[in-house]
Amino acid sequence: TPVFEELQPLLKVIRNHLNDLTIKKAPKKRRPKNARKKVEPEPATASSSSLPSEDSLGGKAGKIMYSILVGEGLYNTSKNPLSRVPIVIDLHGCTRDEATLILDKNLPIWINTAMRGEYPWIIPVDIICGGGSQILSEVVQHWIRNNRHVANRPKGFV
Asked: From the CB of residue 62, how many other CB atoms can be counted at a distance below 10 Å?
């Protein structure tokens, strides 16, 4: 490529000239006079008053809603369940035992509904357990793990 080697210095000059024409330097950003000043955090001490109480340890770290699929052959298909509207069940105000009882009572109904539908014989269900101390969230999570007819709904499914 002797032609390219011969033109290389000229092409470099042209490229630099074009870059200078198209690139305009933006002015420096200036902070307003009353910009917030950084506040350094105080060093943490291990006093008993600064530690969270046992009541507040639950926090809001868990999920407030579980989107699940119920039916047969949950792990054998990736087919979307025909854009069905999810069944919504709200467990606000329930105790652990009440929530488990409601879920166990509704599971056979949901399975029958899924089996009466079309392939892939699964239905979407949204279980709302709310914020608070996340006790219901733990109950629902445990219930999902222990039922073979229930699986977390992947993103993109109804």
From this structure: 19
- φ/ψ (deg, to 5) at 128: -100, 120
Residue from 94, 149, 142 nearest 125 by CA: 149
104-152: pLDDT as tens digits: 999 999 989 888 887 778 888 999 988 777 888 899 999 999 998 898 8
- Total-model pTM: 0.57
- Pick the closest to residue 114 from 155, 66, 74 (CA basis): 74
Distance of CA 114 to the CA centre of its chain: 26
Within the chain, residue ranges assigned H as helices are: 2-22, 96-116, 135-146
- Between CA 85 and CA 69 the distance in angstroms is 12
Please write the tens of the pLDDT for every residue from 30-56: 777 766 665 555 554 444 444 444 444
CB 69 within 8 A of CB 157: yes
Examine residue 120 and say whether the peptide bond preceding it is cis (omega within 30 degrees of 0).
Answer: yes
User: Distances from the Cα of 124 to the Cαs of 49, 52, 56, 82, 113, in angstroms?
Assistant: 46, 38, 33, 10, 11
